[in-house]
Write a structure and sequence with these properties.
The chain is α/β, with parallel strands linked by helices and 322 residues long. It has helices at 7-19, 22-29, 33-47, 63-87, 106-120, 134-142, 177-180, 212-217, 228-236, 246-252, 280-299, and strands at residues 52-53, 60-61, 95-101, 124-129, 148-153, 161-175, 187-188, 197-200, 221-225, 242-245, 256-259, 261-262, 265-274, 314-315.
């Protein structure tokens, strides 16, 4: 007969893995180091394998330990999901929700998704993780470290992962007024080569990972910057133009000109998650995403190509009329 594994010991094991050793893990768990060491030994006896190589100064996972790490996370996810379902009596949704995404999606749509979720279910604690790259987002979800990944699609599904499309983002060229004079709307992407740009340092070349067509025509990078808010400030101060989703450009930046691109550049945004049952908090998040998706679908109004005024349209702060 197979003995059940003590969940407390599994949590201790993952704490040692995540914190890189007994000392930091014990501090995070608020237990004594000898007690944690004994707990790890007890887990190894239960499993009949050695999880850590103790022959070196630094504790490292054995091959058995590496093989156990993934299933261990799945065990805790399943246990946490079961507890959450028990606690969610009478539709009172609570719990913790881990969502991984990259900085380019943290403002839109992550902020809207999170705020709408919390307005419905204030007892949910949302932890937004930034793994630093799209591949990192996929990895976090695959390993069970995040229940959702907010990503640009397509992402190849498999026996572990599945995705759900939400909506498209329309990518625009955002310029200070001094650079917008004489530019048509929409702007042909070939014209971008002559425009000084402020770009996010998102890959080895410092070019924005939005669309390969943009990467091919970018020829005048004025500023490379690792801080998104600083990019916005640089654009509003006249340092150069940048590329932003229309919703961000028209709601977050002021004193700038927003131009469409031709051919249009769009990216599809969606959610990545593991196959199987969702926790109540995750199910609530998915419901909110579907509501926003329906709202944004109704908001779409066809734009007339080339429609523009006599001068650049500048986004300004609303002022009260006297």
């Amino acid at each position: 007969m197979v003995r059940p594994v003590d969940l407390r010991l599994v949590r201790y094991f993952l704490a040692v893995v995540d914190h890189g050793g007994i000392t930091k893990a014990a501090q995070a768990l608020y237990i004594a180091q000898p007690s944690l060491s004994q707990a790890i030994r007890a887990l190894e006896r239960e499993l009949g394998v050695e999880l850590f190589d103790r022959s070196r100064r630094q504790l490292t996972l054995t091959s058995d330990g590496e093989a156990f790490a993934g299933p261990a996370r799945n065990i805790l996810i399943a246990a946490d999901s079961a507890r959450a379902k028990v606690r969610s009596v009478r539709d009172l949704v609570a719990g913790r929700l881990e969502i991984a995404t990259v900085s380019t999606l943290a403002v839109d749509p992550m902020a809207d998704l999170t705020s709408r979720l919390l307005s419905r279910h204030p007892d949910i604690l949302v932890n937004v993780l930034d793994p630093g790259s799209p591949a990192g987002v996929v990895s976090r979800v695959r390993r069970g470290e995040a229940e959702f990944g907010l990503v640009e699609l397509p992402v190849k599904g498999d026996e572990v992962l599945q995705s759900r499309e939400l909506w498209e983002q329309d990518i625009t060229l955002v310029l200070p007024p001094v650079l917008a004079g004489g530019l048509p709307d929409p702007v042909p992407i070939e014209a971008i080569a002559a425009i000084p740009l402020v770009v996010e340092v998102s890959d080895a070349g410092g070019l924005p990972l939005i669309d390969h067509r943009l990467a091919q025509v970018i020829g005048n990078v004025a500023v490379e910057c690792a801080h998104r808010q600083a990019i916005w400030d640089l654009v509003t101060r006249g340092a150069g133009a940048t590329f932003l989703p229309r919703r961000i450009a028209e709601t977050q930046l002021h004193g700038v000109v927003v131009r469409s691109l031709t051919p249009s550049i769009k990216r599809t945004i969606g959610l990545l998650f593991r196959r199987g049952p969702l926790s109540p908090a995750a199910a609530a998040f998915l419901d909110v995403a579907e509501v926003i998706r329906a709202e944004r679908s109704r908001e779409r109004v066809p734009r007339t190509p080339g429609q523009r005024g006599t001068g650049p349209k500048v986004r300004t702060r609303d002022r009260k009329r006297g």
